[in-house]
Amino acid sequence: NAGVTQTPKFQVLKTGQSMTLQCAQDMNHEYMSWYRQDPGMGLRLIHYSVGAGITDQGEVPNGYNVSRSTTEDFPLRLLSAAPSQTSVYFCASSYSYRDTEAFFGQGTRLTVV
Amino acid sequence: KNEVEQSPQNLTAQEGEFITINCSYSVGISALHWLQQHPGGGIVSLFMLSSGKKKHGRLIATINIQEKHSSLHITASHPRDSAVYICAAYNTGNQFYFGTGTSLTVIP
After folding, report:
1. B98 and A CB contact within 8 Å
2. Is there a contact between A88 and B98 if contact means CB atoms under 8 Å apart?
C-alpha cells in the first residue's frame, strides 16, 4: 500500500516550458487535490476532484490544468511555466470529500527560471 | 484576511514542556484538520475532528464549534516533535483553508 505517490520530487523548468506533475493513490479515494505552498502563505488549493471525471477550481487555478480519468490518478499540468509558479506542490487524497483523514504526497519542489 | 489564523507563528520550548497551538477560523466547516510538516517537507495528518476532543499518544486536539476555535496540545514535548503544525478548515464548499503554520522547536 503505497499511499499517495507524487513525482517528481524536484524539477527545474525554463520559463515557457510545460510539464506534468504526477499524483497517484492506491487507496480508492474519491477526493484528490493539488496545493502549492509558498513561504508565509500556507497551502493554497489549486484544483480538486471529487471523483473520476469531475474536477473543479480552487483558490489559485490560473496556469494549471488537471484531469481525472481514473480514480487513482490526478495529474497537474503547467501549461507555460512562469517564475511565479516556483513553489512546492503537494497532492492529497481522502476517502470522501468530507470528514475523513487526508493523505499527502511528499511534495514537488519546482523552480522556474 | 485569512480564513484560518494560527498562533503563535513560532514557538520554542524546552523538552518536557506542555505546548498549545491555537487555531481560529471564520468559515463554516464540516471538519478541522491538524497536520504536521517535518523539516524534510512531508505532511502528515494528525487529527481530523468536527466536535469535542481527540487524543493520540501525547497529542490532544480540541474544537469549539460555537467559538470557531481549535487547539492542539502536546504533552511532555520531545525534540522529535519539532515540526511545523498546520491547521486546516474543511468547509462546506469542499475546500480546505490552511493556516500559515506554527513552527515548533523543542530544545533538549
Report:
1. yes
2. no
Kindly state the average pLDDT of the residues A59-64. Answer: 95
Q: What is the mean pLDDT of chain A?
A: 92
- Distance between CA atoms of B80 and A96, rounded to whole angstroms? 31
Q: Which residue of B has its CA nearest to A35?
A: B96
Question: Per the CB < 8 Å rule, is A48 touching B90?
Answer: no
Structure confidence by residue, pLDDT tens digits, B40-77: 778 999 999 889 999 999 999 999 999 999 999 999 99
The residues, any chain, with a CB within 8 Å of residue A14's CB and separated by 6 or more, are A81, A112, A113
- Residue B9 — pLDDT band, cuts 50, 70, 90? very high
* Interface membership of B99 toward A (CB under 8 Å): yes
